[in-house]
C-alpha cells in the first residue's frame, strides 16, 4: 500500500510540473489571422490550405532604424503583428538601433524573457530586481556579447559610445508586450492623479504636473 501511495504522489507531482509549463503547439503551425472575429488568448489560425511562404517571412531587419527620436533609439519589432507565422510559437525578436548616447528607456516585457546580442558598439545594460531589494544589475557589453533580462523585470539599454550601436533582442513570446515606465506612469490616458503620484514619488505635485506635460 505504501508503494502505491508513493507512486500516486509522484504522478501528482508530474502533473503539476506539466501544468506549470506553456502548452506546446498541437499542429505544425498556426499562422495568425488578425481579421477574424474569433477571440482567443492570442490570434486565431489562418486556414492551413491558404498559408503561403510569405506568412513566415519578414524582410528588412538589416535596415537601420531612424534614431532621431527624443531618446535617441529606435526599436524595430518582429512579433506576431509583423510576422504572422510566429503565432503560437512563443518567440520573437527586435532590432534596436542607438544614436550616440541613445537610450532604450526603462521598460518591462510582461510576457517574455529577453536575450540581447550586441552587433556593433558598446551598450550599458541593466535591470532592477523585485522588492524589497530593488538591486541594480548593470554592465557595459560590446560586440558579440550576450545579456539576458529576466521576464517582467524593469530593464534598459544605453549606447555609451560616440558612434552608432545596434543590438538584436530575442524574446520568449510571439507577443511579448512592452511597458515603458515613464509613458505608463506619466503618460497614461487619462492621467494618473497628481496627488497620488506626488505621494508615491515623494515630490511636490507641481513636479508631477511638469513631468506629465512632457508625455
Helices, strands, pairings?
Layout (H helix, E strand, L loop, with lengths): L1 H18 L53 E6 L13 E7 L4 E6 L5 E7 L2 E6 L7 E6 L4 E4 L5 E5 L5 E7 L7 E2 H6 L7 H8 L3 H9 L2
Antiparallel strand pairs: 1-2, 2-9, 3-8, 3-10, 4-7, 4-9, 5-6, 5-8
Written as H for each helix and E for each strand, in order along the chain, the element string is HEEEEEEEEEEHHH
The CATH architecture of the largest domain comes to: Sandwich
CATH superfamily of the largest domain: Jelly Rolls
How far apart are the termini? 67 Å
Could you say what the CATH topology of the largest domain is called? Answer: Jelly Rolls
List keywords for this structure.
2 domains, 215 residues, Jelly Rolls, Germin, manganese ion binding, 19% helix, alpha+beta, Cupin_1, manganese, 5-stranded antiparallel beta sheet, 4 helices
Kindly describe this structure.
It contains four helices and ten strands; from the N terminus they run H-E-E-E-E-E-E-E-E-E-E-H-H-H. Residues 3-8 and 10-21 have low confidence and may be disordered. Helices cover 19% and strands 26% of the residues. It is α+β, with helices and mostly antiparallel strands. The longest helix has 18 residues, at 2-19. The radius of gyration is 22 Å and the shape is globular. A hairpin with a 7-residue loop joins strand 5 and strand 6 (136-141). It has helices at 2-19, 181-186, 194-201, 205-213, and strands spanning 73-78, 92-98, 103-108, 114-120, 123-128, 136-141, 146-149, 155-159, 165-171, 179-180. It starts with a helix and ends with a helix. Helix 3 packs across helix 4. It has two domains: 22-177, Sandwich (Jelly Rolls), CATH 2.60.120; 178-215, no CATH class. The strands form two sheets. A five-stranded antiparallel beta sheet has the order 1-2-9-4-7, with no helix packed on it.
Amino acid at each position: 500500500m505504501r508503494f502505491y501511495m508513493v507512486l500516486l504522489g509522484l504522478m501528482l507531482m508530474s502533473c503539476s510540473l506539466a501544468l506549470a509549463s506553456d502548452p506546446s503547439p498541437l499542429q505544425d503551425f498556426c499562422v495568425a489571422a488578425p481579421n477574424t472575429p474569433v477571440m482567443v488568448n492570442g490570434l486565431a489560425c489562418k486556414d492551413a490550405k491558404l498559408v503561403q511562404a510569405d506568412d513566415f517571412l519578414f524582410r528588412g531587419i538589416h535596415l537601420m532604424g531612424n534614431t532621431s527620436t527624443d531618446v535617441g533609439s529606435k526599436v524595430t519589432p518582429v512579433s506576431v503583428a509583423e510576422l504572422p507565422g510566429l503565432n503560437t510559437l512563443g518567440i520573437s525578436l527586435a532590432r534596436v538601433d542607438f544614436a550616440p548616447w541613445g537610450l532604450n528607456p526603462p521598460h518591462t516585457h510582461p510576457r517574455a524573457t529577453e536575450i540581447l546580442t550586441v552587433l556593433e558598439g558598446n551598450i550599458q545594460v541593466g535591470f532592477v530586481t523585485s522588492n524589497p531589494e530593488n538591486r541594480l544589475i548593470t554592465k557595459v557589453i560590446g560586440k558579440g556579447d550576450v545579456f539576458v533580462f529576466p521576464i517582467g523585470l524593469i530593464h534598459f539599454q544605453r549606447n555609451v559610445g560616440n558612434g552608432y550601436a545596434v543590438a538584436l533582442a530575442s524574446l520568449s513570446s510571439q507577443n511579448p508586450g512592452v511597458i515603458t515606465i515613464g509613458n505608463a506612469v506619466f503618460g497614461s490616458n487619462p492621467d494618473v492623479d497628481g496627488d497620488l503620484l506626488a505621494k508615491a514619488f515623494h515630490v511636490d505635485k507641481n513636479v508631477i504636473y511638469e513631468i506629465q506635460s512632457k508625455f
